Amino acid sequence: MKxxxxxxxxxxxxxxxxxxxxxxxxKLDNPYEFSERTALYQSASVAGKSETFAHDLCxxxxxxxxxxxxVTAEAAAVFDLSDNNVIFAKNPxxxxxxxxxxxxxxxxxxxxxxxxSDEVTVTKDAVIKESGASLCGIKPGDKLTMEQLLYGLMxxxxxxxxxxxxxxxxxxxxxxxxxxxDEAKKLGATGTHFVNxxxxxxxxxxxxxxxxxxxxxxxxxxxxxxxxIGTAEYKTSYQGGDxxxxxxxxxxTNWYMTGERKTPDGLTVLxxxxxxxxxxxxxxxxxxxxxxxxxxxxxxLKARDHAGLYDNMSNILNKIVx
Length: 322
What we know:
322 residues; alpha+beta; two-stranded antiparallel ribbon; globular; Beta-lactam/transpept-like; D-alanyl-D-alanine carboxypeptidase
């Protein structure tokens, strides 16, 4: 039987106040007061209004972190999409660095507002020089479709693909970041602020486990997004800047999909997005389904390392089938 934390459906009152950036890292060290955040989720009966924004969303009613010491990551949660229940939530509103999970929002904007058949010429903006940054290997002058760039973004976690998408859609990274923040506001992601399309660390670039659920939940509405995140390996060809054909093979980073970690019995992974930086730790958001085809979104933020990330994720996934 599922262990569920039943939640109260309600209206989410959006406020631009929560979308302003952090002044510095101290904001993340003292991230939130639960009572302040839950004020956003009033019961429709209390507010005297009909259900609107949140009537089909999971809404956290309390933090259950102290009920499971095996969940060692800074934040974690499991959301049941079949009946809008929160199965588990630890620090769901704590503002944390999302690393490459940021790319879920970038992909959402591309599938929601872009044209996947558009040809994109990669500009010099896509050159990423930060040490250790994950890349799909595209170079200035290369020509790819938006769809190919999305695979390069989500499968090998290409930061270069993220910039190429951003510049093509908005003209610059800064303008695309504004699109990201506007979309976050529309979705009720009030604890989120983005400054880039890929998630390389910036003290003004942060989100929460709950907000990531809102973003991922919206993205799952698009079949193109589901197809891309459900791909473990992608082979493609595109025109290089020198006019020659470039053959690329991009491999996924989700250990459940690559076979490096066994998915808990009774569940099937639909796909998701990993993220890792020194500041963010090891992170993962993904969708899964049970044998009855009920779907779930699970997220783990700031695990100590990759092994700890999947230990935490398996622990919370097991709560679905207990």
